[in-house]
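Ligand-bound model needed. alpha-D-glucopyranose.
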Amino acid sequence: MSYEKHAWWKEAVIYQIYPRSFADSNGDGIGDLNGITAHLDYLAKLGIDVIWLSPIYQSPNDDNGYDISDYRSIMAEFGTMEDFDRLLAEAHRRHIRIVMDLVVNHTSDEHPWFIESRKSKDNPYRDYYIWKEPTETGAAPNHWESCFSGSAWQYDALTGQYYLHCFSRKQPDLNWENPKVREEVFDLMDFWCRKGIDGFRMDVISMISKDQSFPDGPLNADGYSDMFSHVCNGPRVHEYLQEMNRRVLSNYDLLTVGEAAGVTVEEAKKYANSEGTELGMVFHFEHTDGAANSEPVLGKWTCTPPKLSYVRKILNKWQLELEGKAWGSLYWDNHDQPRVVSRFGNDSPKWRVKSAKMLATVLHMQKGTPYIYQGEEIGMTNRHFSSIDDCVDIEEKNAWQQLVVEQKLIAGETLLKCFDCVGRDNARTPMQWDDTANAGFTDGEPWLAVNPNYPAINVKAALADKQSVFYYYQRLIELRHTLPIVVYGRFEPLLEDSEEIYAYRRILGEQVLIVEANWTGREVACPLFADNSWEELISNYEVHKAGFLQPYEARVVWKSRG
Ligand code: GLC
Ligand code: CA
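Prediction:
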């Protein structure tokens, strides 16, 4: 039997909504809360348990809501607090819970705290943020490079000091060393918990504790040094999260997931420890960052498709290492990642559906809480960027400015190809509901162009086709809900040397479940053999070939020895 402590959030499947791109209810081209409420029945049909909402708070939208100017009010473009209350009530009525994005590593520079903070060195809010004197030559305190290109420090002439921003200039970092900042954060969390929300996804929470010596490092070719290693998993991060846990989280029954940039499996065992003193689980990036460019100045901008052996090695390591020590999360897609069928699968018309189902199988039969990103369940794909004018994401635009325009380190054409492969706008094109104008997302002009493939790939078509990716996800979710082995079974890797097949087994008491998936578009020999003592739970092929897996074939079988 399983020794694992049971919890609703371990048994749940989460669906992430990026509100700006989900559904527009009033024709202004921007998705909104009422648009989400209108589609709750669709999500109930899919079978998900929880919605994670990307930020819906008031924001000047420098980074699409990840720059918050008021934590207690709703972004006007998305609706009102009444709209939110209705969404929450309507979701709960359908037994769907709601998890909010908590963005407290930084605020917007338009947040009243920062407006005050910047006024004078002795303003009571000065220490809410991280201010430093310039060097003797007037330069920034060190050469750290922000995650969105350029210096992580911004000079503010009014007081002659620099403030730290790990992301854009309009996202100043909060100073968690200041106990008042922590109290403010705990208060605003309480505010939302008292409304009855069901949890938090915590934005870059691994970055809240900075090395207070702010050490510089060797300069890369672009003239900047690495910031990441000095701000991720910092000296006091676990102390802060334990305080948050005592002060807020332990008073409610919440799902908590930390977005943990730079997290290692060793660190994750602390963040998501089974004693429950910090968070429920974390997102790591090892399987998505893995294919990044080895050239530090180019960072994530690459087009090299990751190899199965690489992705599998990482996912298997996390499965094995967390066992019994910490709970894991499972995801392919989110609003920062390219579409999985384009990245790890094959988005050509011939193989899109088969490979999307194969990838879903590989992920959803693993141990941990799975996350589905809007559109993934119908196999939405990356889009094509023909010019920088097609891009709206600040990460893409800043990278272009620095690498192509200013430093000429990469040709524009090459960077655009990288955007096609890994740019964040890929995930943010509007949800494709049907084959009418703008994919049924809006009656107006969408804020970001819809993917031109919407006449073929959309919810309406998926619902009308029993063989669609949608119904496959529905079945995977149902398996998790009905078979405890899918949630709690121990994970054991199989065929670890294969260049083509991802296979593993799950074990719970007398029960065994086997997953075999062909990661390639070729038929490959597969030594795993399921005789008729095994029952098939799901497959993306109706007919199998003994001893072989057909292109992108995936199959799950199980039996109980008891
Ligand atoms: C996280 C978010 C991303 C955002 C960044 C800064 O990584 O997922 O979208 O740009 O934090 O808040
Ligand atoms: Ca709208």
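The chain has 18 helices and 20 strands.
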